[in-house]
């Protein structure tokens, strides 16, 4: 009888003990392509968020509770991303830091909106991601925003009178940058002398570049990620093109895609980015020191943005004083956050209002050039 009473008491107590353990932890989900064709972006990005949450836990967590950062691999695939997100929801996350690339991010955002899940994408630049719902935010600037800034760069910094564009027709990212670049360049009085396209996976760009070279543009915009940028710039120089090359934040890492003997192809090129390793601010330098110590390499812009996204989520939950979704979302909307990638507030569409850093490539290094407001 005593054993029966004891077992009964334990059966009643155990759920309470389990619930208490749950309450000692705040679960935040993370998504990224940790394997697959775009894993280099996912690993770089999630390294930043992992570092941030490790630091946060060492410094007392959030609201006095440890953070359980549950990171899942979505392989760069939209369907995999949705499946992974649903697993995170089943794990009782209160917020999401992710996804990384735009298409999976949009797929997740549309479902997260139905769940009213507080969601910050560090690096999803496609314009309509935050239109999925009022719960969806981003730390990076958008594709169209970069297009406008690059047009201003061509006009004001490079004094360009003529420009050409070579665009990846299979990429919303590439097309989004190119479209607003062309629109803004025309407004600024720049002549668009050529526009050529290519498909995902193409390796030979000489036919398109030959047509562009015949127009002899002052500037060539290459709005794509660094692997394609490395191939296009190399082939353009082989064809004798003398144009100034410019690109968006996807160029971050272009020097790694080239042998040092080929750095001449990108020498003097400019690209927009989210921060600079040359920034002497204490916040940036502390981040660089911590990241280099943990991973043994320089952090990319993806790393810095994800690091900021993690701390921004922490800031919002603490200001909300709660893990209730509505309260976190409201706190995010009213953010005035100073991160590694600069000071950030949000507009009415939950896109960041922030400055853009312009980097110049010199001897394979990305040198701080200017900031465009």
Automatic annotation (TrEMBL):
Record keywords, A-Z: Amino-acid transport, Signal, Transport
Ranges for domain Leucine-binding protein: 26-364
Keyword Nucleotide-binding tagged: no
Coiled coil: none
Cleavable signal peptide: 1-20
Single Gene Ontology BP annotation: amino acid transport
InterPro entries in the cross-refs: BCAA_transport, Leu-bd, Leu_Ile_Val-bd, Peripla_BP_I
SUPFAM superfamilies found in the cross-reference section: Periplasmic binding protein-like I (SSF53822)
Family membership noted in the UniProt record: Belongs to the leucine-binding protein family.
Protein name: ABC transporter substrate-binding protein
